[in-house]
């Protein structure tokens, strides 16, 4: 039934309803709410947000008193950047639900988009002072992604701090301090951190925010000092130890991260974090010591501990020992993870034939879950990729799809393989097979839209696919990045810059950073571009998008 329903929806996306083709003018008679809603959904499924905004506004107008339709019409209008229809829908929403926090947040969002700082500030301040404890979260969401100008968001946030509008509670102060950091406003972040330190003295989470702010502003030594003070506090709980270790990790101070996790009661999570940090530090002596400590308790065949011992031995490149540990995991969910890792270790040991025999046994093991068996095909393909064995990789996907017909994970991975090999038609075919069965598969919509934008000149089609993904997950950083990239390809540089900056604020990702650098370079803002390229390089110097951007712009060459 799911496949049949998906095919029906897909067909409707292509041809539209018989009474209202997607590209046709609105009917002469006024449609009722149901007709307009269906037309809006068809347009939305086709990725035509402008038409969806029109139809949903008609639906909201026809459904007197329906606040839900007015809200949906407003949100789709905002997503389509159709401010006129957004305002019309918002007026209906305001009339039907005047005290709704979401509606008032939408009013603030439109004010931000208009660049009307006084109106935006007034509306946001009202949300922050609302007795409903959720009000500040709505205000945070508006400032984080509602406007088109990050500088305006920072300015309004600063004015709200000056006005004393932030609720006198730790969580909102931490959230708005984090937002200032993500906006790249070091001075504002420092102001907020200084204020929150004064308001909540001795609170370790505040000290963590302070350390993060110092790190972001480049004062790494002071950041280490603050972290050392937190770590020295007696009775530090597991959650705080993990948070401190994560900050040390962000600083690149892996030994300190491991040392913090060595304090207090130990469990599998803390042991695993210690092993990972010591491996990053390439401190084989300390990792060996941890390994010996773990081995002392290995007489008890606890599956998780034996799995961890195998992983630690693998970190130490003691592959033969790792294999023994993985094979000794007696049962439970850990056993299946151990079998997968054992196959990888066999491959590392050069026992390729044995590794491929083991992975094929796992693929045929009736006692394994379908997910485990599917993942075994993905693992086999990955091993063939590591061997530069394209035919073997292709065969693994073919057998996997024979066993699991139209399995999305296998089709998605094979599609990425084709893209990596510059065979865009086959990549598109696999991603479209996913969408035939599941037209709302957000990952496939985004991947196909991005691929068409990045590797072809079919930009309008790419935009429709990405818009469908945006409608489903409007705050997904990867999708916002794809949207910014297709805008760049369409020559809409100013709009692209807004979206890519928003994505990078949400997620520090090397590909997003590379895209930002390329857009700024095209705009002639080469120094800013180099800064983003450098941030991307620190995150992942081998990122494909970064390498290509540096080659195409010439930014890798030294400045004249």
TrEMBL record:
SMART domains: TPR. Keywords: Repeat, Signal, TPR repeat. Residues 1-20 form the signal peptide. InterPro entries: CellSynth/LPSAsmb/PSIAsmb, TPR-like_helical_dom_sf, TPR_2, TPR_rpt. TPR repeats lie at residues 510-543. SUPFAM superfamilies: TPR-like. This is Tetratricopeptide repeat protein. It comes from Luteimonas vadosa. The lineage of its organism: Bacteria, Pseudomonadati, Pseudomonadota, Gammaproteobacteria, Lysobacterales.
